[in-house]
Amino acid sequence: MRYARLARLAPMAAATAMLALGGAACGGSSATQGPGSEVPKIPVAKSVGKGEGQLNLVAWAGYVEHGQDEKDVDWVTPFTKQTGCKVNVKVADTSDSMVSLMKTGQYDGVSASGDASLRLIYGGTVAPVNTDLVPNYKDVEPYLKNQSYNSVKGQMYGIPHGYGANVLMYRTDKIKPAPKSWSVVWDKNSPAKDHIVDYDSPIYIADAALYLKAHRPDLKITDPYELDQKQFDAAVGLLKQQRSNVNQYWANYLDEIQAFKTGDNTAGTAWQVTANQAKAEKAPVDTTIPSEGATGWSDTWMVGSKAAHPNCMYKWMNWITQPKVQSQVAQWFGEAPANPKACSYTEKGFCDEYNVGDKGFYNRVAFWKTPVAACGDDRGDKCVDYSKWTQAWTQIKG
Amino acid sequence: MRIPRGVRVILRLWAVIVLAFIYVPLFTVVVNSFSTDKTFGWPPPGFTLQWWANAWQNAGAREALWTSVKAGLGATAIALVLGTLAAFALSRHRFFGRRPLSLVIVLPIALPGIVTGLALNSAIQSTLQPIGFGYGLFTVIIGHATFCVVTVYNNVSARLNRMPRAAEEASMDLGAGIFRTFSRVTFPELRSALLAGGLLAFALSFDEIVVTTFTAGPNTQTLPIWIFSNLARPNQAPIVNVVAVVVIIISLIPIYLAQRLSSGASARTMY
Amino acid sequence: MSSTVIPRETGDGRAARRVSAFLYRHAGARLAALVTAPALWLVVVYLGSLALLLVTSVWTVNSFTGNVVPVVTLDNFATIFSEGIYRVIIGRTVGIAAAVTVIDILLAVPMALYMARVAKPWARRLLVVAILTPLWSNYLVKAYAWKVMLSEGGLIDWLTGGSSPGFSATSTTLVLSYLWLPYMILPIYAGLDRLPDSLLEASSDLGARSWRTLRMVVLPIIKPAIIAGSIFTFSLALGDYIAVQIVGGGTQMIGNVVYANVGAANNLPFAAALAVVPIVIMVVFLLAVRRTGALDEM
Asked: Whole-angstrom Cα distance, residue B86 to residue B92?
């Protein structure tokens, strides 16, 4: 009898204990943080020691290739041979997944775009980087250094990797003549009706804002990531209006390529790497950057604050920014390399096509950055922050 | 019940339609594994054995398959133990909390995978990580075992309820202790139920992706996770088809064996 | 016990016999020995982690850093109940799950009937293998196969002459029905297989024709099995977020929004709050069907 009662109570007691323990362990930071407030103090590495034998990365698909896609597209195997660091890569589809993956603390580094980097910095998820420990850093384009998305008060938090624009991809046989404006995806009666593809992330709202910047001057949009409520509502309205014409919200390359190939998609936003692979699959597609300009991404390799293998990560950051590897990555992915010395290894015309070294082009692309309440101009703190972007995104998709 | 001929014909037709429904997509998977088109366009423009050759050399696929087998075996073993213990406890004893406990056993499989995955993920982060335990095969097995318990429990419970106690009592009257009675009398009767429950548990664990995504770390790739990450890569996607076909073919063996072993009197207790 | 009277075989040492005798006399101790391990696992590990998740649902997250703010508030639930979009998504998900369940029941019952009562014994075994085999082919591979079949110019277009449902809620329902069909067929088949012939003979002796026997004898007996299968299909459809992303073309279900809030929006508290909805739905469902004995047939 006694044993039966004990048997009943034990699980209950254990459960309570676990709850208490879990509750205590679950406590997180309670202070509100943002640019202008304190960045968590995390020590910066002073030297790079021996490699730890392993490296766990979070990266965009195509950044960390070890011959798995094509035999000779491989810059990881030589790295492992030289440093002894075996590389495991977790491919992420969006900046948001990258942030949440890094927050688990299980990864050593991430190729963060501008809309993830500040969140990672202020969340204490990444550590400041000692650029002296990365010899190739001195060759990186000066206009990529100390940017608002990869540094705080002059302290760099990563090593720039490369940048590119979100291009307009379209079926050459279905959309004639070649589109010159983004209106092919935003117009209610566009030739791509019912076959439009959007990028599946709330950051895409900026693309709507970019379009309105050119076509609705009354809204006075200057920066598509710094939108006050009125501008934001207009952008969301445009997206809701577009919803019925949208066939797909793409997050992984194969989905988008398949849909373009079958003709389920005829126009929409894509990355050069997706377009290149679609063309290799004999899909009749082409890309362009329309007159309104484009949003884009400028990626930075960042070191996790809880990285188990920081030495390997520093070695990787130096490896990936050397000219030959930069040329390999840039040509495979279809982006402008951060190190212009890569151009001596690339094919003829590649660097011109991607506007490498063209500061003017760089300034014209609206690179991803995390929307925050502080507008950064005389409007003060009236801008809509990213959490409202994500809520609105659910509303838009319906 | 004599089923009239007309109804028999309809039922037969229905069975054909359902089987076609089930197998046509699988057929396209097989065909696509030979297709030259990397994005699975239909109809396939040409045929090639290249993907089969690539898959054979693909270390990632082999490792993932082995990891899945390990996870499945681990989860099934735990589920067999816990499920049998629970079945004995709940069908042979009356105690306070019996009905709620039987409900809790079903809960891991009745609640959506994402809920179970999220819950286990939060728990692992807040309880195991602070004491230095990382994500890995172990956490995957914990996750899988939790929802596999119910299949073993139900099969063993059903068998126990149908089993006459007389044999066990006779055995103990003759002087055998509890342990020997269990191993000589009870266990042989339970074997088919354990096999059925274990097989279904293994199948559940083998194909599971949602809970696994939340409980595996960066270094643990079960087969579904490997498939997930490779289906997104246009050059790897055809290899996924090959792997899927291979898994189906390999699995025919245990399924058929299990069917033969349990056919006969206890076929009725299979599921 | 004197070892000369009862020959002791290998394996049962003195300690084992004493434990065995003790357990035999004390039912409570037996129960404790049996129930502790599973109870600890399920209650502590599983229910405990569920509780942790639910606790998270009343917290919020700092939108910029993504760190959890452990201050208790019902904001998340307020958002779910007040903003129309979430009601729409929940309604749509429940609708799809219900449709999937109904479709699967309609497909499975005649199939199971054929397998259990019409097919010859050798065919029966083959059919069971045939139904079990798809369970071993990967979920994702099947979903992608459907994606290709549903796309423009694909198999479905060819079969229906150009009116494939494409990527929509309809396709999602179709694919989910496909994926979970074996889980519905198997319990119903098992239930029909267990049906003693004598019952059916008695019914026919009493003058009932086949249709009536089916309606008044067979269906009530396999009702628990049908419900058991429904629990599987309903719950699996309710929480799905992968298949709907592949063939849904932008359709949002509860699972997507939960997943997006965990990953993309980095808002675990809100995701947890949203996850409470399917938990409540399923627990209510389970409590309602507990009496029918369906839980034993899963």
From this structure: 10
Helix (H) or strand (E) holding A87: strand A86-91
Q: Is residue B6 part of a domain?
A: no
Beta-carbon pairs below 8 A across chains A and C: 165
Distance (Å, whole) CA A186 – CA A133: 47
pLDDT at res. C192: 86
Residue B46 in any domain: the answer is no
Classify domain C85-267 by CATH number: 1.10.3720.10
Q: How many angstroms away from the CA of C227 is the closest CA of chain B?
A: 12
Between the alpha carbon of residue B85 and those of residues A216, A237, B91, C246, the distances in Å are: 70, 58, 10, 40
**Which residue of chain A comes nearest to B127, CA vs CA?**
A22
Please give the Cα distance from B98 to C290 (Å, whole number).
13
Question: Which residue does chain C place closest to A32, by CA atoms?
Answer: C62
Asked if B41 reaches chain A (Cβ–Cβ under 8 Å), the answer is yes
With respect to residue B23, please indicate whether it lies within any of the assigned structural domains.
no
Any chains having at least 3 CB pairs less than 8 A from chain A are B, C
* Residue B51 located in a structural domain: no
CA angle B146, B149, B150 (to 5 degrees): 115
To the question of pTM greater than 0.80 for the whole model, the response is: yes
Rounded CA gap, B87 and C34, in Å? Answer: 9
Say whether residue B131 is in contact with chain A using an 8 A CB cutoff: no
A372:C71 CB<8 A: no
Q: Does C31 touch chain B (CB under 8 A)?
A: yes
| A356 CB-near residues (< 8 Å, 6+ apart) | A336, A337, A340, A342, A343
Contact list, B106 vs chain C (CB under 8 Å): 231, 286, 295, 298
Supply the DSSP string of A324-384, one letter for each residue: HHHHHHHHHHT-EESSGGGGGTSPTTHHHHTTTT-HHHHHHSEE-----S--SSTT-S-BP
Instruction: Determine the structural domain holding residue B152 and report its residue range.
Output: 59-270
Would the CA dihedral through C160, B20, B238, B69 be positive or negative? Answer: positive
Say what the pLDDT of residue B83 is.
Answer: 93
Closest CA to A169 of A297, A333, A285, A294: A285
Cα torsion angle, A195, A199, A205, A207, sign? negative
Judged by a CB distance cut-off of 8 A, whether residue A352 touches chain B is no
Surface of B (97-116) touching A: CB under 8 A = 97
Distances (CA, A) of B148 to A27, B110, C47, C117: 32, 11, 15, 30
ipTM score: 0.85
Q: Is the Cβ pair B118, C271 closer than 8 Å?
A: yes
Domain residue limits, chain C: 85-267
Alpha-carbon gap: C178 to the closest alpha carbon of chain A (Å): 21
Q: Which helix (H) or strand (E) holds B159?
A: helix B137-162
Residue A164: phi, psi to the nearest 5? -165, 170
C-beta neighbour count of C253 within 10 angstroms = 29
Residues of A in contact with C23 (CB under 8 A): none
Instruction: Identify the CA nearest to C179 among candidates C139, C151, C219, C210.
Output: C139
Structure tokens at A343: 């151009």
Instruction: State the CATH number of the domain containing residue B171.
Output: 1.10.3720.10
Chosen from C55, C93, C114 to mutate, greatest number of chain B CBs within 10 A:
C114
C51·A19 Cβ contact <8 A: yes
Per-residue pLDDT of chain B (271 residues; tens, 9 = 90+): 567 788 889 999 999 999 999 999 999 888 888 888 877 777 788 888 888 888 888 888 888 999 999 999 999 999 999 999 999 888 888 888 888 888 888 889 888 888 998 898 888 877 877 777 778 899 999 999 998 998 899 888 888 888 888 888 888 888 887 788 888 888 888 888 888 888 888 988 998 998 898 888 777 889 998 888 887 776 777 888 888 888 888 888 877 777 776 654 344 443 3
Closest residue, chain C, to A123 (C-alpha): C65
